[in-house]
Amino acid sequence: MADSRQNPLILVVHGPNLNMLGKREPEHYGNRTLEEIDAALHAKAAKLGLEISTFQSNHEGAIVESIQKAVGRVQGLIINPAAFTHTSVAIRDAVLILDVPTIEVHLSNIHKRESFRQRSYIADIATAQISGLGASGYIYALDALAQLIT
Ligand code: DQA
User: Fold this and answer.
1) Which residues, 6+ apart, have CB-to-CB distance to 104 below 8 Å?
2) Does the Cβ of 142 fall within 6 Å of ligand 1?
3) pLDDT class for 3, splitting at 50, 70, 90?
4) Least confident window among 5-9, 71-75, 92-96, 130-134
5) Closest C-alpha to ligand 1, atom 12
6) Domain spanning 9-149: which CATH class is it, in words?
C-alpha cells in the first residue's frame, strides 16, 4: 500500500557491532555512540524536510528483512553494513530489490585498512560510498540523498 507520509522517508541501516560504538576501537570508529549518531541524523532530517527510520542489527537475516519491509515505502537508503559489507550477497540482493538511491557509509576508510575490508558487496550497486569521515559521513549521506530525491 502506498505510504501517506508527506516527507520522503529514508531508511538508515546499521550492521553488526555498530551498537558498540563509543566503546569499540575508537581509533577506527571514534567516540560517538550509535544513539548520538541517530539523534544527529534525526535533527538533520528535520532540517532537510525528510523523515528517517533507523535500524541496527547484528544479524544478517534481520537486516535483509528490514530492507525487504522498506520496499515501496522509502525513497532512499543509508547503509553501513559493517562486517557484512565484505561478505553478504544477501544484503546486496536486498538492496537491489529495494531499488532506491543508496549511500554506503563507513566510519573508517576501509580502503586504507586490511585487504579483506577493501572489497564491498555494496559499492558497485550503491549511488555512492562515503568512507573515512567518521560519524559526519552519515550526515553527508543524508544531505546527498536530500539532493538526489527532492
Ligand atoms: C565499518 C568497517 C567494517 O570493515 C567493519 O567491519 C565495521 C565498521 C566502518 O564503519 O568503518 O564494523 O563498516
Assistant:
1) 79, 80, 81, 85, 120, 122, 123, 126, 128, 129, 130, 131
2) no
3) low
4) 5-9
5) 82
6) alpha beta
Q: What is the pLDDT of residue 4?
A: 56
Distance 60 CA to ligand 1 centre (A): 15
Give residue 33 CA to ligand 1 midpoint distance, Å: 14
Q: Which three cell numbers stand for residue 132?
A: 573515512
Q: Which of 14, 86, 106, 111 is catalytic?
A: 106
Q: Is the Cα torsion angle 16, 122, 146, 26 positive or negative in sign?
A: positive
Q: Does pLDDT of 45 surpass 60?
A: yes
- pTM here? 0.95
pLDDT class of 6 with cuts at 50, 70, 90: confident
Active site residue 29: yes
Distance CA 64, CA 91 (A): 6
CB count within 10 Å of CB 44 equals 18
Whether ligand 1 lies within 6 angstroms of the CB of 82 is answered as: yes
C-alpha 33/C-alpha 23 separation (Å) is: 8
Q: Is 110 in the pocket of ligand 1 (CB under 6 A)?
A: yes
Answer whether 135 contacts ligand 1 (Cβ < 6 A).
Answer: no
